[in-house]
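@channel sequence for tomorrow's demo:
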Amino acid sequence: MTTLDELVVVTGMTGAGRGTAAKVLEKLGHYVIDNLPPGLLVQAVQTIQASGDIDKLTVVVDARSRGFFGGLVEALEELRDIGVNCKILYLEASDEVLVRRQEAARRPHPLSHEGRLMDGFDRERELLRRIRGRADIVVDTTNLNVHQLGQRVHAAFVDEDTGGMRASVMSFGFKYGIPIDADMVADLRFLPNPFWVDELRPLSGLDQSVSEYVLSQPRAEEFLEQYEKLVALLTGGYLNEDKHFLTIAIGCTGGRHRSVAMSEAFAERLRAQGVRTLVVHRDLGRE
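structure tokens (generated this afternoon):
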């Protein structure tokens, strides 16, 4: 019997993007099993190992399993006891966004029991509470489109077998909410805002003039140096706990100028250290 190089369990809230995540992993060479009852997880993994034909497996497990879902934690513990390393990818979003997506899809929630959609989401969150606490990677898709979600998943799992740390640097606007899936959150509102400079207001942090303005401010360089040291400090501990993905959220008021410029600059520093880094500008273009 061979050992899987990679096993990923994709789970999370209905409408949070599990299907999109599974498609990305399939493109990365994973064999994908959708809606597998947790009680069959160990058997499925052992069968695939015995075949010797598949080295990367993704299993999507979610609320459609209903009463069977409660056995997922136990199944994962059994897999780890027999030496199968498993990564858990958990996807979530705000209630408002989940309801809107489900209504747009014109599908009832699998746990709504002919009641309100929100009743189904409430039951689902409670059902998923234990597994969320064990997740290796949590992605909040509230303000992500399918392309941004795809980038996040791709960055988290591409070249997994090469080891090392991977990072996602996300710019955001505090006015739209703090990303709940971030491992680190930085607040750049202490820097002067380019919004109040007439010639810079219509531009973004991707424009050179805005970037130069932000990075030339007092303490901007100190910010980059200190956060670079903090990531270096965390990296050793994360890798020791077999966690290979770090999400760093950098925010300003609207997520257009300061956070965008600083995210790009910080990502370049991480790449120079050999950290594979993706940049996502969550709120750019919303104003």
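heads up for whoever presents: The chain has two domains: 6-161, 166-281.
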